[in-house]
């Protein structure tokens, strides 16, 4: 039996886990939304507010491989466009405001690859956003300090380091493109 909202959310995610499907994503999304309603008096959440870690692992599932991280961000922190390789990710905002823009990858006439911004969403406390494999997005902390949870269906840091599956984009002459600056 779960002793707090974090443990209950993890148990809930485990109960709906399976291969990527609408049902799995919806179930994980629902349990992360529940996590956002945790009372600030729960020890784990109170500690996050005091510590304000840039990156803290809250749970790593040894059976299913998913990872839940907490990130504290200051206003203005920007993470350029990237995808998550073959993994999918759910962001949940506990505090602050984060702008997340999505992009489409397009080939230009000269053969170079660029990005076209598709949409922009200002995420506020209580909101949850899903990015599926291949989705490209950036993040900017608009109101901080922000506290967000990032749920990944696999260890993306390891996958990026070992297999170089995460694609990052850089801005060249006002255009987002694949490659090094």
Model description:
The chain contains four helices and nine strands. With 181 residues, the protein is α+β, with helices and mostly antiparallel strands. Strands 1, 2, 3, 4, 5, 6 and 7 form a seven-stranded antiparallel β-sheet that branches. α1 packs antiparallel against α2. It is globular, with a radius of gyration of 17 Å.
Strand residues, percent: 35-45%
CATH fold-level name: Jelly Rolls
Mean pLDDT: 89
The CATH architecture designation is Sandwich
Count of individual beta strands: 9
Itemize the secondary structure elements and their pairings:
Layout: H1 5-16, H2 22-36, H3 43-51, E1 56-60, E2 67-73, E3 78-82, E4 89-107, E5 113-123, E6 128-131, E7 136-152, H4 156-163, E8 169-172, E9 175-178
Helix pairs in contact: 1-2
Question: Can you give keywords for this protein?
Answer:
181 residues, alpha+beta, Jelly Rolls, 7-stranded antiparallel β-sheet, two-stranded antiparallel ribbon
């Amino acid at each position: 039996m779960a002793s707090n909202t974090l443990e209950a959310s993890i148990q809930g995610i485990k109960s709906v886990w399976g291969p990527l499907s609408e049902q799995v994503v919806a179930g994980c999304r629902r349990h992360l939304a529940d996590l956002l309603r945790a009372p600030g008096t729960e020890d784990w959440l109170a500690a996050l507010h005091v510590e304000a870690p840039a990156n803290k692992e809250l749970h790593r599932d040894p059976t299913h491989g998913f990872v839940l991280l907490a990130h504290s961000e200051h206003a203005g922190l920007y993470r350029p466009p990237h995808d998550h390789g073959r993994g999918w990710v759910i962001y949940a905002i506990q505090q602050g405001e984060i702008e997340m823009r999505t992009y489409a990858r397009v080939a230009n006439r000269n053969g170079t690859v660029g990005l076209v911004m598709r949409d922009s969403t200002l995420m506020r406390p209580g909101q949850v956003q899903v990015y599926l494999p291949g989705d490209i997005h950036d993040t900017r902390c608009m109101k901080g300090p922000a506290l967000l949870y990032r749920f990944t269906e696999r260890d993306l840091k390891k996958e990026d380091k070992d297999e170089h599956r995460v694609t990052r984009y850089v801005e060249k002459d006002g255009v987002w493109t694949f490659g090094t600056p």
